[in-house]
Amino acid sequence: MPKPIYIINGPNLNLLGQREPEVYGSQTLADIQTLCDARAKALGFDIVFMQSNIEGELVDALQAAGAGGAAVVINPAAYTHTSVALYDAIKAIDIPVIEVHLSQPHSREPFRVTSYVSAAAKATISGMGAQSYILGLEAAAHALKKS
Ligand code: DQA
Fold first, then answer.
1. Does residue 16 have its Cβ closer than 6 Å to ligand 1?
2. What is the pLDDT of residues 64-89, one digit of tens each?
3. Fewer beta carbons under 10 A from the terminal one: N or C of the chain?
4. Tell me, what CATH number does 98's domain have?
5. How far apart (Å, rounded) are the C-alpha atoms in residues 105 and 38?
6. Catalytic annotation present for 24
7. Could you confirm whether 142 is annotated as catalytic?
8. How far apart are alpha carbons 76 and 66 in whole angstroms?
9. DSSP 3
10. What is the distance between the terminal CA atoms of the chain, rounded to a whole angstrom?
11. Could you tell me the residue range of the domain that residue 77 belongs to?
12. Catalytic site residue from 6, 24, 116, 133
């Protein structure tokens, strides 16, 4: 087995299923983890799946991925729009990082248009609900094949 793909989830994503379902859908984060696990296995990868509401723990997870992971799929949630720390953490690691969002931030409030993470990530996939994660995993596997 190659190194795992880290799937990193930011603040409030632990509430998926009950949080604004008209925006984020009815699937829970556990449902998304199950979907990701199956797709990753089919692509030949294990996953490390984590969520935190704490910015520094997301930085720690990116550093752990840089040390022992093959790639990262990250939904930084609200920290997308604010976090220089996540930008720096992504810049500091030498593996493909794919940014994903359930919703399409560009079609929502103006403050969601800014993404510090997009400025450092290899690719961004948004607006496809839970499928954004699956497409993110496929993008990560594709990037690894090419590297
Ligand atoms: C989100 C979009 C962000 O703007 C928001 O703060 C989130 C979720 C998404 O997956 O659509 O918490 O990252």
1. no
2. 999 999 999 999 999 999 999 999 99
3. N
4. 3.40.50.9100
5. 27
6. yes
7. no
8. 17
9. P
10. 17
11. 5-146
12. 24
Rounded distance, CA 28 to CA 93, Å?
29
Q: Return all residues near 32 (Cβ < 8 A) that are at least 6 apart.
A: 16, 130, 133
Nearest CA to ligand 1 atom 6: 78
Measured distance CA(16)–CA(29) in Å, rounded = 6
DSSP state letters, 19-38: S-HHHH-S--HHHHHHHHHH
Q: Of 6, 79, 87, 101, which residue is the catalytic one?
A: 101
β-partners of residue 126 are 101
Give the count of domains, the chain: 1
Q: Which residue of 13, 103, 106, 132 sits with most ligand 1 atoms within 8 Å of its CB, as the best mutation to test the pocket?
A: 103
**pLDDT (tens digit, 9 = 90+) per residue, 97-141?**
999 999 999 999 999 999 999 999 999 999 999 999 999 999 999
